[in-house]
């Protein structure tokens, strides 16, 4: 196992750089650091969601996702290294299929709202999309494995589905968008 942190405040970043897992230093605005930060924020947001009262299966899934996001962050911190395995994407695919099968088909757009756990899942979804964009931008400049990008893409989809699942706890439902333009287009003209 790699070296563990023994000191948190090292002051080595005071010059505007940060160390990667391979001991190279890059500016703190580097796309790799941005990607790592977005993945860390996503993991933290899932931690907030885990503070809610959740069904045991959803809780177990989210805890596993947190571990995989830590692997993803580790992979991003060490150029050329692989920690996040393709099987992690398959696990998300299966979770997506399982949870989506129990939901009614979407007829309209939904708002990122509803119950507190569902709203938090939507926040996780949007942070996952941002993390995905950061990884895609980094992949335009450096060689990365495909799995991190695929994992974040699938995870954002899963968080959308989990928000719908969580809105249905205790008899709730999605919050549907009421588009005035759509309503006007569907209303027959007078006369």
UniProtKB/TrEMBL annotation:
Stretches of the chain forming a coiled coil according to its record: none
Swiss-Prot/TrEMBL keywords: ATP-binding, Cobalamin biosynthesis, Nucleotide-binding, Transferase
Entry EC no(s): 2.5.1.-
An annotated GO BP: cobalamin biosynthetic process
Keyword field contains Transferase: yes
Signal sequence bounds: none
Molecular-function GO terms, alphabetical: ATP binding; corrinoid adenosyltransferase activity
UniProt region (Disordered), positions on chain: 1-24
Spans through the membrane: none
Catalytic activity, as annotated: 2 cob(II)alamin + AH2 + 2 ATP = 2 adenosylcob(III)alamin + 2 triphosphate + A + 2 H(+)
Record keyword ATP-binding present: yes
Domain Cobalamin adenosyltransferase-like residue range list: 8-165
InterPro entries documented for this protein: CblAdoTrfase-like (IPR016030), CblAdoTrfase-like_sf (IPR036451), PduO-typ (IPR029499)
NCBIfam families noted in UniProt: PduO_Nterm (TIGR00636)
Family according to the record: Belongs to the Cob(I)alamin adenosyltransferase family.
Subunit comment: Homotrimer.
Protein name: Cobalamin adenosyltransferase
């Amino acid at each position: 196992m790699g070296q563990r942190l023994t000191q948190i405040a090292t002051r080595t970043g005071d010059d505007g750089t940060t160390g990667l897992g391979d001991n190279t230093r890059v500016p703190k605005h580097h796309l790799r650091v941005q990607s790592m930060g977005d993945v860390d924020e996503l993991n933290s947001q899932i931690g907030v969601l885990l503070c809610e009262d959740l069904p045991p299966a959803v809780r177990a899934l989210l805890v596993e996702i947190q571990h995989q996001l830590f692997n993803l962050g580790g992979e991003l911190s060490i150029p050329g290294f692989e920690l996040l395995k393709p099987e992690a994407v398959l696990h998300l695919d299966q979770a997506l299929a399982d949870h989506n099968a129990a939901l009614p088909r979407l007829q309209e757009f939904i708002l990122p709202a509803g119950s507190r756990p569902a709203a938090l899942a939507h926040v996780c979804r949007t942070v996952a999309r941002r993390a995905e964009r950061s990884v895609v931008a980094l992949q335009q400049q450096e060689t990365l494995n495909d799995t991190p990008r695929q994992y974040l893409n699938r995870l954002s989809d899963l968080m959308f589905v989990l928000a719908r699942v969580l809105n249905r706890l205790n008899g709730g439902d999605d919050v549907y968008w009421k588009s005035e333009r759509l309503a006007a287009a569907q209303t027959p003209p007078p006369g």
